[in-house]
Amino acid sequence: MQKNDENKVKQLKENRATLKSQRITTIELAKFLNMDSANLSDYLFFRKAPDDTLILSIQEAVSQIKEEAKVIKVKPITVVELPKALPSESDENESLDSEEMTEAEILDTEKNFEYSIPPLKLGTKIQSIRNRMALSEAEFAQIMQPAVSTETVMYWENNFGTPLLDYCIQISDMGVVTLDWLLKD
Question: Could you report the per-residue pLDDT of 68-121, keeping only the tens digit for each?
């Protein structure tokens, strides 16, 4: 390897380190240089030998991208205070007697997705949707298209199995919740 090649490799390694530390993607750099990202990647990872002008162009582009990143201002984050947590099932009877929340407020809060506190398990979420709809496991099973057995609903609610995606979509639609909320733990 020639001395000139060693210098190029050193410069490219420094450029890659800067790209990594500044979180500049190869695609972003390639757009800045008006070249194909695959070709640029070949040069950056030593699959092709770059010429001196390309190395200088890369260094200048990285510097300019770093400067532009400093100019971008970040919008401040607004913190929104959420309402009180919903009572657990064991505390539900006690909280209904208190003056803080009426039964109508609790039901209204449970229906409002934005302020609901998601249960930790999929089965608990399915069960809460079924209970909110005031359906038995058998009735809930018959609503599904195609219908499932009562045992299947019991398996879902006890986290012994996960419904197929088609059923998850139906359950999220019935509960007026997002599929994302339903499936995330």
Answer: 766 544 445 455 555 555 444 444 444 444 445 555 565 555 555 454 454 458
Integer Cα distance of 30 and 38 in angstroms: 9
Strand (E) or helix (H) holding 145: none
Return the structure tokens found at 123: 């089965």
Ordered DSSP codes for 103-140: HHHHHHHHH-GGG----SSHHHHHHHHHHHTT--HHHH
- Residue 20: burial class (beta carbons within 10 Å; 0-12, 13-18, 19+): exposed
Judged by DSSP in three states, 15 sits in helix
Answer for the pair 126, 156: CB distance below 8 angstroms, yes or no: yes
Task: Report the predicted TM-score, pTM, of the whole model to 2 decimal places.
Answer: 0.38
